[in-house]
Specification:
single chain; 60 residues; Ribosomal Protein L30, Chain: A; three-stranded antiparallel β-sheet; 2 helices; 3 strands
Length: 60
């Protein structure tokens, strides 16, 4: 599992990146979501890597 945290806001970023952040489910800065560690998620992370922080966590 990946713990993804929004570090920067939506203002001034392209619409395609806003859609990626919305699909993660972020509402405001500092919010955190848990997602599966798969190729689709990694592709989304690469698109908005400058706006988020990612940590790998164990799913027990």
């Amino acid at each position: 599992m990946l713990k993804i945290t929004l570090k920067r806001g939506y203002i001034g970023i392209p619409d395609s990146q806003k859609k990626v952040l919305a699909s993660f489910g972020f509402k405001k800065i500092g919010s955190t979501v848990l997602k599966k560690d798969d190729e689709a998620t990694k592709g989304m992370i690469r698109k908005v890597a400058h706006l988020i922080a990612v940590e790998k966590v164990d799913n027990k």
